[in-house]
Amino acid sequence: MSNSVRYDGWCIVTGQDFRQKFFIKDPTLPKIPNPKYNVRLGDSPHNSKEIYQPKDLTNYTAQMDIRESDSRSGTLLAHLEVGLGITLGTPDPADGSVELFIDNTVTNSQPFLDFTGNESFFDIFMAEAGGDTQRLFFGMIKIQGSITDV
């Protein structure tokens, strides 16, 4: 994995489960035919004839922190790691999938409720067993209050 990527598109709604799944591709492997390629649309960034293969996440670990500011001294809203909110490779570690999960009982408690309506910050680090730790993603994450009391 190379340089980290900024992503600011996630939102946590207080009182709701937060679940996001994304896939990591491996640019060091040869590209494969894209099964979703649409001939009528031609080549474009979103419609390529070939795509990168998934990254095999066997023997990888991951961690994620969400904080109220973009520094380590900011209030910690959530800490996730493999087995505690992060799942790698479901159902197969070779599929390159990463799933994040925060239970609604956590998002409906302090400190999340204190930061409702604000943007918080996160980063995700991954490492292969015995390898270097690298930051994969970072960015802002919106904490949105729930309108309906359920």
Q: Flag low-confidence runs.
A: none
- CATH-assigned homologous superfamily: Immunoglobulins
State the helix count: 1
Helical proportion, percent range = under 10%
Total domain units:
1
- Give the percentage of residues in beta strands: 35-45%
Question: CATH architecture, please?
Answer: Sandwich
- Average pLDDT reading: 91
Profile the largest sheet: 9 strands, mixed
Order of helices and strands: EEEEEEEEEEEHEE
Which topology does CATH recognise? Immunoglobulin-like
Describe the structure.
With 150 residues, the chain is mainly β. The protein has a single domain, classed as Sandwich (Immunoglobulin-like), CATH 2.60.40. It contains 1 helix and 13 strands. The strands form 3 sheets. Strands 1, 2, 3, 8, 9, 10, 11, 12 and 13 form a 9-stranded mixed β-sheet that branches. Strand 12 (119-128) and strand 13 form a beta hairpin. The longest helix is centred in the C-terminal third of the chain and has 4 residues, at 104-107. It is globular, with a radius of gyration of 17 Å. The protein starts with a strand and ends in a 6-residue tail after the last strand. The relative contact order is 0.28.
